[in-house]
Amino acid sequence: MKKKTFVMVIIALVAVSFSSMAQRVDRTNFKAGVHLGIPFGDISDLSNFELGLDLGYHWGVSELIDAGIATGFMNAFINNDTADFGPVVVEGNFPNIQYVPVAGAFRIYPTYDFKIGADVGYAVGINDGNTGGLYVRPIIGANLNSTTEINISYVKISDDYDFSMAALGILFLF
What is the C-alpha to C-alpha distance for residues 65 and 117, in angstroms, rounded to an integer? Predict the structure, then answer.
């Protein structure tokens, strides 16, 4: 219940803070895409790859800056029934590790075709035993054309274990 209330408060704050920006700037973008991640850290003992969906809505704050909201779905596929955490080996039937991030997003555009930025918020744990945690995702992207972006990112979720990964994604702008 606390997790659900926390997520709703974040969504409300982000929506209220960006509603005034949307009134001042006429450029908006809905973004949807997918990414493929390679886990490392503690999670690499359980999973070899992650697949995710990215959704976002950005408002143009200026010619050089966008701000918005980001969400999606991340699923780290478990590769076996044994996890090796150094001296401790754990056996069992592990579920896929799943998160739904709820984040604020910002992008800086040094040029029209290149962008850097980050998504920062909370990743809600979906599978049993997953408590979720602070979500940070720095991103570097490049426009392939006016409606398609390719990006690389680093994802870090501060949970009971180290959920870190490098990801390659493609986004479509609507």
Answer: 9
| CATH number, domain with residue 108 | 2.40.160.20
Q: Which residues pair with 55 in a beta bridge?
A: 32, 71
The domain in which residue 88 lies consists of: 2-173
Write the CB contacts of 166 (distance below 8 Å, at least 6 apart in sequence).
37, 38, 40, 152, 153, 154, 155
**Whether the Cβ atoms of residue 116 and residue 143 lie closer than 8 Å to each other:** no
What's the predicted TM-score (pTM) here? 0.78
Give the span between the Cα atoms of 39 and 154, in whole angstroms. 10
Q: 46-99 pLDDT, tens per residue? A: 888 999 999 999 999 998 999 999 999 999 998 865 555 555 555 666 788 999
CA–CA separation, 147 and 29 (whole Å) = 10
3 state SS of 113: coil
